[in-house]
Automatic annotation (TrEMBL):
It comes from the Eukaryota. Residues 110-123 have a biased composition (Pro residues). It catalyses: dopamine(in) + 2 H(+)(out) = dopamine(out) + 2 H(+)(in); serotonin(in) + 2 H(+)(out) = serotonin(out) + 2 H(+)(in). This is VMAT1 protein. It is a multi-pass membrane protein. GO terms for biological process: aminergic neurotransmitter loading into synaptic vesicle. It comes from Nyctiprogne leucopyga. The chain crosses the membrane at residues 21-45, 138-158, 170-194, 200-218, 230-253, 259-279, 300-318, 338-358, 365-385, 397-417, 424-443, 455-477. Belongs to the major facilitator superfamily. Vesicular transporter family. The gene is Slc18a1. Residues 106-127 are annotated as: Disordered.
Length: 524
C-alpha cells in the first residue's frame, strides 16, 4: 500500500508534464511576475530619486546655513565684575554690550529682501529644473531593460532551437529573482540601473522561451490564439497589479517591501518550473528553424512587428513621463502616481482575453487596425486631463486598444511562420519580443528628451499621430500568401482562415522544387 501511495505523486507529476494547460499556467505565471516587476518601479523610481537626491541635497544645505554663530560673537561667561572697594562695576576685557552684539550680527548677516516668487502650492514638489532633468534620467533607466532585452533576444531564439524551451525558461527565472532582490536593496541610481538591465536579460529568456513553447504545444491556429490570449492575460495582470501595488506599498510600508514580495513569488514560480518543465532536459527542435535574418526580410512579419512596436511605444512613453507630469500639474501624492495606470491595466486585461477569441472571427488584421487607431486617439486625449479622474477615459481606451493589437499580432506571428516558413517558433517570437522591446526602449529614452524640449502634450500628439498613420498597414495582413507560390492559394476577398498546419508537410517544403507544379496538379 505504501509503495502504491508513494507512486501517486509521481504519476500526477508525469501527467502534469504532458498537460498543455499546466504548460500554459507556467508561462502565465512567468509573464505575470516579469511584468509586475516591469511596472512596480514606475511610481517608485521618480519619487525615490526626488526624495534621496533633491530633498536630501536641500536638507544638507539647510543644515549648513543654520549653524550657530561663531564663538567670537557670543558674550563671554564673565563680562563684568563688581568692585566692593568703591561700589562700582568694572568692565573686563572682551565684553561686548548687547546693542553692539546685535549691530555686529546685522552687519554680518544683513536682512534678506523678500523673494518675489510665491511658494509652491501645498502638496506640489519643488525643483522644477530637477524634475525636468529627471524625465531624461528616469526614461533612460526604464529603457535600459528593453535595450538589453533587444540585444539578448536573437541569441535566446537561437538557443531555444538548439536546446529547447525548458532550460531557457528556468534561466530566466534565476536572473529575474536576482534582479528583484537587487531592486529591493539598491539605494542609488547606478544600482537601480544595473538591476533594471539585469531584468532585461531574464525577461528575454522567459518571454521568448515561453511564447515559443506555447506555439509548439498548441499547433491548431484557433487554439493557439486562445492560448496566446490567456498568456497575454498574465502579462496584462502583471501590468495591472504592478504600478498600484508598488505605489501603495512604497507609500505605506517602504521601498523594499514590494520587491521582497515579488522575490518570494518568483521562488514559487521556480518550484513550479522544476516540477513541470524538467529544466535539466535538453530537447532540441527536430526541424531546423528559419534564420532570423530570413524572417526579418519577410514584409508581412515586419508589418506585424511594427504594429507591436508602435502600439506599445505609447504606454512606454507614458511610464516615465506621466508620473512627473502629474507631480508638476496635478500635485498628486505618491499613491496616485501608480493608480493612474490602473484603468489602462484593467482594460488591457479585458481586451487580451476578449479579443483572443473575437479577433479570429472578425479578422485579426481588422482587430489590429482598429486597435492602433484607438491607441492614437487615446494618446491625443491624455493631455486634456486636469486631475487623476480625467485620465480614466484615455488610459482605459489605451489599454483596451493595446490588448486588441497584442492578442491579434502574437498569433499572427505564428501563423505567418506556419504559412511562409518552417514551423519552428523560437526565432519569430524573438522578433516579436524585439519589436515589443523596441517600443519600450525608444519610448522612455526619447520621451524624456522630447518632454524637456517641447512639453508633455506635444509628446502625446507625436506618438498618437504615428499610431493613427501606421494603422492602415495592418490591411496587408488580411490574407498573406504562402511564400513563393506561383499560383495564389488564397482568395484576396476571403478573410484569414483558421487552419492547423501541424500535418501539412507541403507548406514546410520551401523553397519549391522543380516538381512542385506536378504535385500541385495531382492535388487538384
Amino acid at each position: 500500500m505504501s509503495s502504491a501511495a508513494d507512486r501517486v505523486p509521481w504519476r500526477w507529476l508525469a501527467a502534469g508534464r504532458t498537460s498543455r494547460r499546466l504548460v500554459l499556467g507556467v508561462v502565465f505565471v512567468a509573464l505575470l511576475l516579469d511584468n509586475m516587476l516591469l511596472t512596480v518601479v514606475v511610481p517608485i523610481v521618480p519619487t525615490f530619486l526626488y526624495t534621496t537626491e533633491y530633498e536630501g541635497a536641500n536638507s544638507s544645505v539647510t543644515s549648513a546655513q543654520t549653524e550657530p554663530p561663531p564663538p567670537a560673537l557670543q558674550a563671554p561667561p564673565f563680562s563684568s565684575m563688581f568692585s566692593y572697594f568703591d561700589n562700582t562695576t568694572v568692565t573686563v576685557l572682551g565684553f561686548t554690550s548687547a546693542v553692539d552684539l546685535a549691530n555686529r550680527t546685522e552687519s554680518i548677516h544683513p536682512p534678506q529682501p523678500p523673494t518675489s516668487s510665491p511658494p509652491p502650492p501645498s502638496g506640489c514638489p519643488e525643483g522644477e529644473e530637477f524634475l525636468a532633468k529627471e524625465n531624461i534620467r528616469v526614461g533612460l533607466l526604464f529603457a535600459s531593460k528593453a535595450l538589453v532585452q533587444l540585444v539578448v533576444n536573437p541569441f535566446v531564439g537561437l538557443l531555444t532551437n538548439r536546446i529547447g524551451y525548458h532550460i531557457p525558461m528556468f534561466i530566466g527565472f534565476v536572473i529575474m529573482f536576482l534582479s528583484t532582490v537587487m531592486f529591493a536593496f539598491s539605494g542609488t541610481y547606478t544600482f537601480l540601473f544595473i538591476a533594471r538591465a539585469l531584468q532585461g536579460v531574464g525577461s528575454s529568456f522567459s518571454s521568448v522561451a515561453g511564447l515559443g513553447m506555447l506555439a509548439s504545444v498548441y499547433t491548431d491556429d484557433f487554439e493557439r490564439g486562445n492560448a496566446m490570449g490567456i498568456a497575454l492575460g498574465g502579462l496584462a495582470l502583471g501590468v495591472l497589479i504592478g504600478a498600484p501595488f508598488g505605489s501603495v506599498m512604497y507609500e505605506f510600508v517602504g521601498k523594499s517591501s514590494p520587491f521582497l514580495v515579488l522575490a518570494f513569488l518568483a521562488l514559487l514560480d521556480g518550484a513550479l518550473q522544476l516540477c513541470i518543465l524538467q529544466p535539466s532536459k535538453i530537447s532540441p527542435e527536430s526541424t531546423k528553424g528559419t534564420p532570423v535574418f530570413t524572417l526579418l526580410r519577410d514584409p508581412y512579419i515586419l508589418v506585424a512587428a511594427g504594429a507591436l512596436c508602435f502600439s506599445n511605444m505609447g504606454v512606454a512613453m507614458l511610464e516615465p513621463t506621466l508620473p512627473i507630469w502629474m507631480m508638476q500639474t496635478m500635485c498628486s501624492p505618491k499613491w496616485q502616481l501608480g493608480m493612474a495606470f490602473l484603468p489602462a491595466s484593467i482594460s488591457y486585461l479585458i481586451g487580451t482575453n476578449l479579443f483572443g477569441i473575437l479577433a479570429n472571427r472578425m479578422g485579426r488584421w481588422l482587430c489590429s487596425l482598429i486597435g492602433m487607431a484607438v491607441v492614437g486617439i487615446s494618446l491625443l486625449c491624455v493631455p486634456l486631463a486636469k486631475n487623476i479622474y480625467g485620465l480614466i477615459g484615455p488610459n482605459s481606451g489605451l489599454g483596451f486598444a493595446i490588448g486588441m493589437v497584442d492578442s491579434s499580432m502574437m498569433p499572427i506571428m505564428g501563423y505567418l511562420v506556419d504559412l511562409r516558413h518552417t514551423s519552428v517558433y523560437g526565432n519569430v517570437y524573438a522578433i516579436a519580443d524585439v519589436a515589443f522591446c523596441m517600443g519600450f526602449a525608444i519610448g522612455p529614452s526619447t520621451g524624456g528628451a522630447i518632454v524637456r524640449a517641447v512639453g508633455f502634450p506635444w509628446l502625446m500628439i507625436i506618438i498618437g499621430v504615428i499610431n493613427i498613420a501606421y494603422a492602415p498597414l495592418c490591411w496587408y495582413l488580411r490574407n498573406p500568401p504562402a511564400k513563393e507560390e506561383k499560383i495564389a492559394i488564397l482568395n484576396q476577398e476571403c478573410p484569414m482562415q483558421t487552419k492547423s498546419y501541424s500535418a501539412q508537410k507541403t507548406l514546410r517544403d520551401f523553397p519549391l522544387t522543380d516538381d512542385s507544379d506536378v504535385e500541385a496538379e495531382n492535388v487538384e
